[in-house]
Amino acid sequence: MAVIGIDLGTTNSLACVCQNGKPVLIPNPLGQVLTPSVVSMDEDGRILVGSVAKERLISHPEASAASFKRYMGTNRVFMLAGQEFTPQELSSFVLRQLKEDAERFLKEEVTEAVISVPAYFNDHQRYATKEAGRLAGLHVERLVNEPSAAALAASRISGEEEGSYLIFDFGGGTLDVSVVDYFDNVIEIIAVSGDNRLGGDDFDEIIARRFCSLQQMNYDDLDSFQRYSLLRLAEDCKRKLTGQNEAELLWESEDKRITLTNVELAELCQGIFDRISQVISAALRDSGRTAGDPCQVVLAGGSSKMPVISFYLQTFFKRKPCIIASPDEVVAMGAGIYAGIKERQEDIQDLVLTDICPFTLGTDVVNRSDTDNPILSPIIERNSILPCSKTQYYTNSYNGQSHISIGIFQGEAYYCRDNIKLGAIEMDILPLPAGQAHIEVCFSYDINGILEVEVTDHDKKQIRKKVLTSDCFRMSESEFNTRLEALQTYKLMPPGGIRTRLVLARGERLFAQLLGPRRQLAADAIQKLQETLLTQNDQQIINCLNTTQEIFDQLEGL
Ligand code: ADP
Ligand code: MG
Fold first, then answer.
1. Residues bordering ligand 2, an ion, CB closer than 5 Å
2. Where are the beta strands (DSSP E) in 251-308?
3. What is the pTM of this model?
4. Which residue range(s) make up the domain with 431?
C-alpha cells in the first residue's frame, strides 16, 4: 500500500509519492501540485479547500480561514460560517483533500502518510499535526522535520548521497534556516534558526506600501478589505518579477497603476535582507560554522524563487545557491522520498532525523521588579544535542520560606507567561534565611521527547521527580471520537465541478475588488458563465470557462 509524503505548509500544501524510487508530486483536481492551505465553507455547508477557498478569503471572509498552521497546538479557534474549528481540524480538511487527490491519482486507497513539520515545532504542535492526520483518516506514524526532508531531497536528486547542507526555507510567513549534515545514512540537524514573522507576505506589504506612497494614499488608512485586495495584487506583481524584470500593479481603476523593477524592489527590501542575515548568522553561529565552510545552500519555499533573494544569498555566501527543484516543492519531495523509504521498509533505523532540542526548557525564577511576573531561567537551551541532562542550582527567596513551586516551561521568551507551561513540581522545604537553601533542579530530555525533572532539596534531603511526555495535553479517546464523527458530517467539494467553482469564486472576488467599468465586466462575465452552465452543454461550458478565464486574466493584468 502506498505511503504518501505531505508538506502541510502555512501557505501551501503538497503531497508526493515515490514511484520507481523517484518522487512524483500529486496534482489536485485543478491539475496543480500546490494546494493553498485555505479552507472555506460554502452555503450548503460543504468544505472547500485550496484555490477556491483562497478566492473566498476576499469575497467570504467570515466563512474562510487561512494560516492556521501558525496556531497548531494552541487553544485558538477559527470560525467558519458561525461554526468553530481548531487549527488541527482545519488542517485535517486540507489533509483529507490531499488524501482524496492521492487516491484518485494512484487509484488505490491511501491510509498512511509521512507529514513534514518545522524542526522547531514543539511537542504540542507535533501532536496536533498527528491528530490532524488521524482526523483525516490518515495514519501518521512519522513526522519528518522540514529541513531533513529538504536535505534528503537535495541529496537524492543531486545524486550526491552525503554532505552538509544549509537549508534556506523562505515561505509565505516564515523563514527557517537550518544546518543539516547527511553522512553515513544519518540525517542530523545541527542547528535551526528562524523568524516566524518574516516571509513572502512582507514583500507583498512592501509593494503595497510603495503603491500607496506613489499614489498619494495612506496604506494604514485602508480598511481591511481594501488592504487585503491591494496585497493580493501586490503578490501578483511580486510573482511577475520572478520571471521578468519589470511588472505593473493596477488597482481599482486605470489611473491607479505603478511599475516596479527588481532593482527597485531590492532597494525597498534592505530591512528584510538585514533580518535574513541575522537568521542565517544565528544558524551558523549555533552550528559552529561560517559562511565559507563547505556546504550546499539549498533553496526551499516559494519566496526563495525571487531573484532578489537568490542574488542576496549569492552575495552572502559568495557562491551560487543550489536549486534542486522548484523551491516550493523541495520539502514535499523529501517527505515523499521518506514515505517511499518507509513503504519499502528499508533500513532506516540509523536515519536519525533529529537529535537536537529545538526549543529551550527551563524553570521560573522570581522577578524582583514585578513579583507576579516570573522570568524564565533556561536549563536546557535550544539546539542542545539529545539526549541531554543539565542541572541548575536555586535558593529560597525570602526568610523562612517553607514551600517552593518549580514551574517547567518550554520556549524562548523572557517572561514565563509567554512560554508554554508543561507542569510544576511542588515541594515543602526547610525554612531558612533567604538565600541559604540549596535546591538543585535537573532536567533530562531524551530523544523521544520525554522530559524528566528532578528537584532535590539538599537541606531536607528530599527528592521530587516528574516525568512529562507529550501525552499530557492529549484529548481523551472519547473526545477525539466525538470530534471525528462531527467532522465526518462535513463533505469536501467533489472534484467534478471544481474548475467552474474556481472561476465563479474568482469572478466574485474580482467583483468585490474592482470598481466602475472593470467591475461591470466581471459581473457580465459571471452572468454569462452562469447562463451557459444552465445549458448543460459540456463543450459550450468549457469554451465559456476559457473565455471567462481570459477576461479575468485581462482584468487582473495577468
Ligand atoms: P509555506 O511554506 O509558508 O506554506 P510556500 O513555500 O508555498 O509557503 O511559499 C509561499 C510564498 O511564496 C508566498 O508568499 C508566495 O507569494 C511566494 N511565492 C510563490 N511563488 C512565487 C514566485 N514565483 N515569486 C515570488 N514569490 C513566490
Ligand atoms: Mg514550507
1. 9, 171
2. 257-261, 296-300
3. 0.82
4. 358-473
